[in-house]
């Protein structure tokens, strides 16, 4: 089934997904891209110096982590 045609999604459409860490944004993006034949583009988080600290101690680092992207 061609979902783009079914829902009248233009060829040049851009879908943006936002949400907090760990809610499934990447999974949803990949699933939608596959279903709709879209290309994906993900935010590069490798440069974030707080990423490892955030995952090690969510409560301590969650506030500062959100402001480093």
From TrEMBL:
Keyword terms of this UniProt record: Kinase, Transferase
Deoxynucleoside kinase domain ranges (all copies): 15-68
InterPro entries with a match to the protein in the record: DNK_dom (IPR031314), P-loop_NTPase (IPR027417)
A Pfam family it matches: dNK
A molecular function (GO) term: kinase activity
Superkingdom, natural source: Bacteria
Gene source species: Halalkalibacter akibai (strain ATCC 43226 / DSM 21942 / CIP 109018 / JCM 9157 / 1139) (Bacillus akibai)
Keyword Nucleotide-binding listed: no
Protein name (record): Deoxyadenosine kinase
């Amino acid at each position: 089934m061609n979902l783009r045609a079914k829902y009248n999604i233009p060829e040049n459409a851009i879908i943006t997904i936002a949400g907090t860490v760990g809610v499934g944004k990447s999974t949803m993006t990949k699933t939608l891209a596959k279903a709709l034949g879209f290309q994906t583009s993900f935010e590069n988080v490798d440069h974030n110096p707080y990423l490892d600290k955030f995952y090690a101690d969510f409560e301590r680092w969650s506030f500062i982590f959100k402001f480093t992207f």
